[in-house]
Specification:
By secondary structure, this protein is mostly helical. It has 4 helices and 4 strands, in the order E-E-H-E-H-H-E-H. A hairpin with an 8-residue loop joins strand 1 and strand 2. The termini are far apart. The structure holds fe (ii) ion (FE2) (2 copies).
């Protein structure tokens, strides 16, 4: 998501989950909040000095990747449970995000310091991409809920 909350602690604003991206389904929203919190903790660490030590950044990124993998598995199960028609496509998207994160981790291994601005741009891009794909599932859930309400009338 490109919407951001203001923060005086970093040169760039912190990332946050906009209300428009809330799914209201299982623990997907909590997972997204947790993932964004992990990104923001790394941004705050980078923002304090303008850079983040490569090793510290790699450690944070590794934890984020592990948490994202768990979220993707859970989300795919939630999608399968409601027969989401775009599940196969969404799985490919998840795999693509993980590939790009693994690439960022490899790049970090050769840098002793990572610039805060670069970290911010990477995270904003990942978050935007990650949540944008979930919006199609949100639309599907909203349509399913509406159809259920209409049939109950
Ligand atoms: Fe997703
Ligand atoms: Fe998600």
């Amino acid at each position: 998501m490109t919407e951001q909350a203001e923060s005086s602690d970093t040169a760039k604003p912190l990332l946050f989950l906009p209300a428009s991206a809330l799914m209201h389904h299982g623990h997907i929203d909590d997972d997204h909040r947790e993932l964004i919190g992990m990104l923001n903790r790394m941004l705050l660490a980078a923002g304090a000095h303008g850079t983040l030590g490569g090793a510290a950044f790699a450690e944070g990124l590794q934890s984020f990747i592990a948490r994202a993998e768990r979220h993707f598995r859970d989300e795919e199960q939630a999608m399968a449970a409601v027969a989401y028609p775009q599940l196969a496509q969404h799985k490919l998207h998840h795999a693509d995000v993980l590939r790009r994160l693994a690439g960022a981790l490899r790049d970090t291994a050769v840098q002793s310091k990572v610039a805060a601005a670069e970290v911010y741009d990477l995270f904003n891009f990942i978050l935007d991409d990650l949540l944008r794909a979930d919006l199609a599932f949100k639309s599907f859930l909203d349509a399913t809920r509406k159809a259920k309400c209409a049939s109950a009338d």
